[in-house]
Design goal:
This protein has 153 residues and is an alpha/beta fold. It has one domain: Response regulator (Rossmann fold), CATH 3.40.50.2300. 31% of the residues lie in helices and 14% in strands. The chain has four helices and four strands, in the order βαβααββα. The protein has a four-stranded parallel sheet with strand order 2-1-3-4, covered by helices on one side. Strand 1, helix 1 and strand 2 form a beta-alpha-beta unit. Helix 1 packs across helix 4 and helix 2 packs across helix 4. The longest helix has 22 residues. It is globular. 37% of the residues are buried.
Amino acid sequence: MDANRHPLPPNRVLFACVHNAGRSQIAAALFNLLTDQNKALAISAGTQPAPHMHPEVVDAMGEIGIILSGVRPLLLTNDLAGQATLLITMGCGENCPVIPGQFREEWNVPDPKGQPPVKVREIRDLILRLVKNLIARKDWGGKPPGPGSRPAG
């Protein structure tokens, strides 16, 4: 194996929502911050990707030191979903792919698009609790937080 290549973690979580500009991006960013990436890694995608991140989400995540301003929404495809060991849907309903044999969870989380800052923070913090619970249930933790990288919640 090439010394510069790192093996993919055994578990790949795909967070999916409609526009991939809010909920799923928050979840993937928090997940990758808090998990041991030798055990699991998250990506996010949407069934109808927006042209850019929702600005209110970028602001709320920036408040806890996570920069999403350069992130671009990604189209959720069957191929992308098939690479995941766990698919977590967040409001895309019947438009999300169904992959036989794949584990899937639905997280009922409100859409932060167009919400006032206080509501977006509440949604971010709800997602944080869900992500922490997932990591604990799957025993994917263990990554010590670095200075200044610990999200509120």
